[in-house]
Structure formats: C-alpha cells, structure tokens
Fold these 4 entries.
Entry 1:
Amino acid sequence: MFKIQTLNAIAAIGLNQFPREFYEISSDIQHPDAILLRSHVLHESHIPESVKAIGRAGAGVNNLPVKQLTKRGIPVFNTPGANANAVRELVIAGMLLASRNICQAWQYVRQLETDDHTLEKEIEQNKKQFVGFELMGKTVGVIGLGSVGVKVANAAIGLGMHVIGYDPTITVSRAWELSANVKQARSIDDLLTKSDFVSFHVPLTDETKHMINHSRLQAMKHHVTLLNFSRDGIIDNQALLEALNENKVFAYVNDFPYGLLKNHPRVISLPHLGASTKEAEENCAVMIAKQIRLFLEEGSIVNSVNFPTVETLPLNSGVRLSIVNENIPNMVAQISAKLAQAELNIQSLLNKSLDEIAYTVIDVNQEVEGEVLKQIGGIQGVVQVRKL
C-alpha cells in the first residue's frame, strides 16, 4: 500500500488516478511515500524520511527545496504544458487589456455618479482619454519558447501580429510546434529593440533574475508593453517603476502583485491567475498523478526537474531495483558486482545521469533479499535503493 500526502487541494479527477486498493491518500497522512502539492512552500518544512517522490501540480518549483531533495535522492516532478493553454489565453487577454485601456475605462465608468439622462453625454466627452491601439501589425517578442511560449507565439500570429522569439535551449519538439512565421532573435537585446510587446516565459534562476534591468528597459522601444506571466523577479521592479514614470514603458501586465507597482495607473496586476482554470487544474492533477504512479510502481521518471528521464517497460517477471547514486565513476560496476555475488542475473539495466545524480533501474531474474539491498545501499555514493 502506497501512501500519498496532499498539501494542497488536488482536483478529484487527478486523485482518482490512484486505485484505492493500492493507495491511501490524505492531507495528514503519516510516513508518506509521495507528496502532492501546488503552491505549498516546503523550504522550511520537515520532509519525512519515507518520502520517495514529490509531485508539483504545476510548472514552477520555486516553492520546493530542489537541491536538498536531490541530495536525498528524491525526484521532483512537475507538469509542464498542462496549464499552457490557460496561460496562453491570459497573456492574449493581457495584451488586449493594455492596448485598449480596458481596465482604466471600466473603472472610469464605475465611478460615474450621474443619472442616465446625462451619462451618455459625459461619456462621449471623456472617452477620448481611453483611445487605444490595435494588436494587428504590432510586434511581440516572446522570451522562452517552452510549452507556454510556443502557444503564445502561435496565437499572436493568428491575431495578425509579427512575432520574434528567443530561446537558445528550445527543444526539437517545441520547434516543430512553432509557426514558421515566428522570426528568430539573435539575442535578448535584439528582441527587445524590435518589440512593441514583450512576453516572458522563463523560470526564475540566477541567470534570469533581473534579466530586465535599467539598461535593457532604456534600450526598448518607446511605449513598449511588458507581460510577465512567468515569475516575479525576472524584471527589476524599481527600474520598471522609473521606466513607467518616464513613459518609456506604456504598460505592465503581470500575475504577481508587488507593492511598489500594483497601484500604478498603467500596471495591471492579477492575483496569480495563470493556471487558475478548472481545465488547467484538472490537467495538472491527472498528469502529476500518472507520473507519480509510474515512478512508484515501475520506477519510470518523466518530467522531473532534478532527475534524468528514464522510461521503463512494465515488469512481467522477477524483481526491479530502483537505485539513486552520486554521478561518479564505477557505480554501476559495483552494484552489478553485489548482484553477481548473490547469484542474481541481470535481465535489463537502464542508467542515466543528470548533473550530480545518476539513476539506475535493474531488472533481475528472481527475488532480492534484504541483505543484498543493504549491501547495495552500503556502497559509497549510493543514496537510495528501492525494490519494486
């Protein structure tokens, strides 16, 4: 019986992926095999020794101590692409809100206190202050061409916009999805100087923190609109405030309210609504549940942010060992030697590594006794051993 602890509300359609005859699921479960969460912050929390995997029903993992979990041999799974359509639609909505001054115009109408007889006349006299511009023919620069960025780029093409994309690490599969009409920027700076809108779709890392600073803001087109539905911290907020006050930046639409900016008349801040649709929450829940099941039951690793991808076939006979070890030489040979000493024949072996961690899945022809597992676990550099 596997035990799953939920630290946030996970859509029922996702939890139903776990057959109850094999899984126990609760928010206050003791000694869980896996933890499922969305926005719950684990940085200061105690993570039980029993935990073998953590699943984040969403893309970002800033709320998780990934480096600490990696050292403990715990893979962290996420759900890239499951909420991509929800974010894509919100980015397009953000461009329309900004370009047509919709929020300001709506607020203007709400505060009018005149009667219906004079309402139309007053509106006709004052509506000129909300004159906007059309998206068609404008250029949007998309930084980060992952699952969301590609969808945003293609949607903008459909609206008649010109699109420039930048992502030096774009995958082959994402490149195939990208419209042929999307132009490639030589660099971030090349993209920024040509774009009327800039949309960010990159994780927050040491490399992307304050990617947009004072000098880059000044190099942008006059009256550029910035859309940040990725992560707070990518843009230097103080530098952005200055650019807004100088009218260098026309508008800033974001999903991360910040005290310095949220009340600025040309800032539209939303309460982290990017993935807040019923469809996205259900997609994320189903996707993360399937990935956790595959890992616990078969040892497969799909969509982990800290472990290599290892896709296994179902085990028809014998026993499967799942082994996490430091990515150092001679580990597989030492593990194989322990199995040979126990007269266990290896039927198949998969081994992959990512940075400092290596992951090995070994199928053997018969039962593996606890003493053999103990010996493998005692090899210097082995972090975790699991028998499936």
Entry 2:
Amino acid sequence: MKGYGQFCPVAKAAEVLAERWTPLVLRELTCGSTRFNDLRRGVPLMSSSLLSQRLKFLEQEGVIERRRAPSGRGYEYHLTDAGQELQPLIRTMGEWGQRWVRSRFGPEDLDVALLMWDMKRSVRPENFPRRRIVVAFEFTEAPPNKSHWWLVSEQTEVDLCLNDPGYEVDLFIATDVRTMTAVWMGDISLQSAMASGALEAHGPTDVRRRLGAWLGLSAFAPIKSRRPVPAVA
C-alpha cells in the first residue's frame, strides 16, 4: 500500500510531505531557491533523477508550480498557496531539531557543500567595504575536491565558487568543517574559534573585523539546546 490507508489529515499530509528528501527540498524552496541547479546545491547528496521525481510529485500535489524562467531559458519552481502555508511548518521543524535533536557533528553530518551554500545565502555584503571582496576558505580535513571555496561578495550579491574565480583574495580563512559548522550553528563563537586557533583569518584588519557581521549565522543559531544531558553511570 502506497499510502497509510487513513482518512486522517495528518496521514494524508504525511503521504505528501514525509517522503525521504521531500522536507529538505521544501526547505530549499522556502529559502528562495527556484532553479533546479540551486535546489541540487542545497541537497547535494540527492541524485538529480530523484530530485526531478520529487519536484514532479510536489507539482502534481499542488505544492509547487513550474514556470518558464524570466530569461526564457529553462524553468523555475515556485511554491503555490498550498506550498506557502508549509513555510511555518518547515521553520518549526528546524527550530525543534535545533532545540531537541541538535547535531553532534558526526562525520556523516558534516557536509561542506551544504555548509558553504547555507552560508552563502545569509552573507550580508553591505557589511563589507563597498567593492568586490573575495573570501577564500580552506577546509583542512575535507576531500581535495571540496577543500577550497570562494565567496565573492559584491555590493548587493554574493557568488559561491568551487573553482578559483581568478580575483585577488581579500580574506583567507583556514579551518576544518567541524569548527566552521559549529560557528555557523551558534555552538561556538567566531571569536573563540579564532582565539583557540581552530579558525585562522588572514587579511586586512578592517576586513577581518567585519567578518562576523558580514557572515552572520544560521537562522537557527540563537535557539539553545534543551536536550537532556545523559546521566553518567
């Protein structure tokens, strides 16, 4: 049986929303991703074929609609009224997860591609000097093909590059994925990571001082953990 065989609205909603990967696809849509390649960057471990299947299913269920891109090249995916109503649900799921099942950053959870994509979406370019600023990241323990990333911060836009964009680097950050994830999720401060040497930032003083204001934190970072501490035997 494909569904739950129940008339209960919770069961019917779960048939649409509780399929593996679907909540993460919805998370990306609620965060503003509309192009297929951008959605893929938010769920890098999901195959392109499976993403296509999920998008078609959500379109059939009236959660999203596919539109021709304004450029006339390709398509975009947008939430319908039904999909828009899911935004508080997705946000609440994230808040609950941060509060009660907060990640312990096991190796299986440390996804550098998702980390950089999530960071890119929250960068505030207005907090850097009014010119192009290039911040290069080196993740010391990441696989060679994912160890170097660049965020190119213009006055109003930010690009994420896995290949060297060819611009002069203004700020160079060296750290490991675990430390950067912990900073991003609010478990340790940027200042304490730098003071301990777990994160190094090299560049002009005025740019380094603005790093925290420019980078920001995850939307879930302010939520404190309420997960009980296991009793020591």
Entry 3:
Amino acid sequence: MKRIDAHQHFWRRDRGDYGWLQPHLTPIYRDYLPADLAPQIAAAGVDATIAVQAAPTVAETRYLLGLARENAFIAGVVGWVDFAAADAADVIASLASDDKLVGLRPMIQDIADPEWMLLPDLAPAFEAMIDHGLVFDALVLPKHLPNLRELVARYPDLTMVLDHGAKPPIAAGDIGAWQREIRELASASGIVCKLSGLVTEAGSADPAVLADAVNHLLDCFGPRRLLWGSDWPVCELVCSYADWDRASTALLARLPPAERALIQFENARKTYGI
C-alpha cells in the first residue's frame, strides 16, 4: 500500500525564527532535517511527505521549498504568509511559482484574537490562494471551530484542511464540547481533517487513550475525508514516529483495506494535488 505522511516538519535552530521552540521542550530542542526523517519513513513504508511550516516567516517557507527540491520524498510544502500584509496576494503569487508549494498555514492557534480569521483585511490573501490552487491548513483549537465554520462558508472554492483534528483536549478527559463542534463542522462543509497530532494532546500513544477521539473523527468525516500524518518531530514529545504509526495502524485496523488506503494515501494525494 502506498502511503503519504500529510503532516511533518523540519527545523534548524540556527535559523532563528522558531519562537515557540524553547529549551524546555527538551525532547525536540535540536535540529530535525530530511536525513533524520528518511530512515523513519522508509521503515514505516511511507513514500512521500508534506512538509508543513513551523515558523511564521516567508524565509522559512523558502527554506522548506529548497529542502523539497533537494529531497524527492518531500512531495509538497505548506508554507506561511502574513495574510494581513498589504502585499499578501503578491507574496502568495511569488511563492506559488514554485510547484512544490501546495498550501499555506497561518498559525491561528497562536493569534490572540479568536476572530482573526474572519477579518475583512484577509480577503485578498484567501482569494489569492483560490486563484493559485493552494490549500488552506487550519491550525486551530476547539474554541476556533465556530469561526472556522463561517470561514468555510465564506470561501466555498478554497480547499481547507483541519490540522490535528483541532487538537481535542484528550488529556483533560472531557472531549464532549469538541465532539459537538467537530460534528457541526463536518456536517456543514466538505472540509477534510488530518489524523495527526493527537498523541501530543493525549500525552500518550496508547490506542485505548486515543480511541474515542479517533473514532469520533472517523464517524464525522469518514474515510474519504481523513488524511494520515505523523506531526513528526513534534510527536517525539510523547512517542516515536514508529510508535504513532503502530498506534494509528491499530486504531484503523477495523476498516477494510480500501478505506485505510484512502486515509493513508489517496486523500492526501487528491487534496494536495500530488
């Protein structure tokens, strides 16, 4: 079975634009480069990846595009642009001239204003994404889901992906409110969702701990609207690439092979135009 890892990161600390990456994040406070990932995806049988931005700078996006040109397994890059900048549309057009750019991701989870994504000043950026066939990755928290529903309705021609299932509060032990908002979002739109990042929210790679959240995502989005991703190396705060691969394999084991293939390959290929 072919596989695509629809969500992984690289970083090199001396670049200096990863403000969130601080020494207290001991397990991942080091450089992570393609040579570190290549043996892990080979062991997991993953054929290609989507490299996703980890810094809010255009410079990092160009850095990732350079890595994609040098490493054939990086099938696409989800980058970053200042959506509120007056020249956002021009910057998007410039970046989109590189066919390895498949999407953009503002770091909404870190923006203080929960209404930010709905600001009128962002319209030129969203419209430029549509014009250039780019995917919008929504890095949001559960509190953002009502606004994300409105955003999806506002831009029906923009392909949108929900990162990490909107980060359900699994470790807190109460995902009821998240479940309700996810169901509303999935039923009101055609947005697709990444099956990724859940081990970080749970603090565990135990399938029994993750099962309620994963089963809810399967129930709401179905196998045709889920994309498998590792969130490597962030996952290493909790577990290895191989640990998450084993856990997700167990969690999806009840599905027939054709449905697992959709989640692990075809949906990412189609969504990102790989």
Entry 4:
Amino acid sequence: MPITAAITAIEGYLPDYILTNQELATMVETNDEWITERTGIKERRILKGKDKGASVMAVEAVKKLLDKRGISAKEIDLLIVATVTGDYVFPATANVVSAEVGATNAWSYDINAACSGFIYALTTGAQFISTGAHKKVVVVGVDKMSSIINYEDRTTCIIFGDGCGAVLLEPNTEGLGVMDFLCKTDGSGRGHLYQKAGGSVKPPTHDTVDQKEHYVYQEGQQVFKVAVKQMADVSVEMMRRNNLKADDVSWLVPHQANKRIIQAVSERMQLPESKVMMNIHKYGNTTAGTIPLCLWDYQSKLKKGDNLILSAFGGGFTWGSVFLKWAYDGQ
C-alpha cells in the first residue's frame, strides 16, 4: 500500500471577543436581518490587543495540537502557515510560529492563496509525507482579517473574522488521508478581490493610507458568481474522477465565505444539508482558517474511513478541492 498523508490530529483557536451583527449595526448602516439573509453570519471573532498578529492564534493552536497528539515540537519536520495577514511582510509567519512553539528541527514557510490557502498548504504538505521526505508536517490556516478590514465598508466588514485551525499530517499505509487534490488559479480575476496597497506595486504612502487602500477591496457580485461556479465545478470533478456518488460522500467541508455559496455548491454535488459542515454563523469568513475550523468543530462526528470533500475559492483567483479519507474516529 502506498504512503498517504493522513490528518492525525486537529486543533483550533478563536479569539475571545465576539463581534455581533447588532454591534456592527452601530458602526455601519446595516442590521442583523440584512446580514443574516445575505451571508448567514450572526457573529465573528476579533483578536484584540496591542502587537498581536496572526502568529498569536497560530502558536496557541499548534501548542494544543501537539499536546493532543502527545508529541514534542522538536519532532515536527515542516510547518506551513497559510495566511494573507502575516505578522510581517517578512519574515514568514511560519518562522515566528516555529520559534515560539520550539519547533527547532523544522523548516517553515508561508503560503498566500487567500481563502484557498489551507487547501493549497494541505496538498503541499501532503507531498512531503507521501514521498517519504517527512514524517510529521503541521499545516496551519490562520488570518487576522480584522487587521485589513475597513469597518466603514458594509460590503466587507460584515463578512470577515479572525481565527485559526491547525492539523498534523503523518504517514498512513491503510489507504486513508489525502487521496486526491485539484488546485486552480486564474490571475486575471485578481482585481475583483484584493488589497490595493502595501505591496511593491503600491508601497505605503500617506496617500494610500488616506485613500484606505490597505483594506480588502471586493466586488461582491462578481466574486459570488465565479466562486459558486468554480467551487462547484472542482468539487464535482473531484467526485467524478474518484468514482464517488453523493451517497459515498460523508461530508462536504466548504470554505465558509457565504451561506448561499455553500448551499449552491452542495446542491450541485446533490448533497443534503446534513452532510455539509457549516459554522459561518459563528465565525464568519476567517479566510485560510475556515476549513480547519470546520474540521475542528465537527471532529466528534467524524469516523475512520469517512469520505470528505474539501472545497475553497479565494482571491487571486484561487480555488481547489481535496478528497480526504478520515483516519481516526472523532474525539
């Protein structure tokens, strides 16, 4: 039996502060009914405190992950962090996390694929396991979206929250773990969802700050239309090429961008709502954190051998899907 990369432990971290729809209504022209109807979101978590970046959440999640698995940080071979809100332009947030948890034998780096970041990082980490290069790979999806959100912009501030999920990948020879993946990119869509300033094209200036170009810019209708099509297409293709019918799929684990997008994707896959992981109402869109946070929330319901389809779409445009066989009974 070939070596596959199986998730052997999962953990999450959420900030304490809860930003409700009611509180948002005091900051921008909106209300609970309007937000809930269009997104399915009721509240989201926000990381408060001076000098607290995305690494703060990642460090806590990874520490709990290692404790759960009962291993030392020194056993980690590789640590990958998926994020668009890294602590710094450089060094990588993964470098910060590995230092803070004591993963002194690991090499580490970040992946920037927006909301598809965890899918990209998971498939990348899986290759190091399946080739036999590494035995223990930690994959983190984390974003402090509150750091790049304009809370005067109703089109974006209602959607995003902060949070982190982390998984441990280890070799498996039982036919469990990452079985297949399909990742896609279309850079021509970058202008529909991006941060205009802060990079080398438009470095920070007084003008870019005054123009509020360091916040997320999104053309909602265009992104919605493309996200529905691409997330659904890649998920259906993943089922087709692995000979999976709807009855064979235990769970759809979709990126938590918008409840209507999730529903449209599950309908294309002919899956009932009972097979769809959803926690968008509690956390909003945590970008790279949504999929691992879903797995963390639902882990008690997962059974060894369950067929999972992971699916995401993000700025760039980026999108992808993973066919995963769950490796252990839920905790």
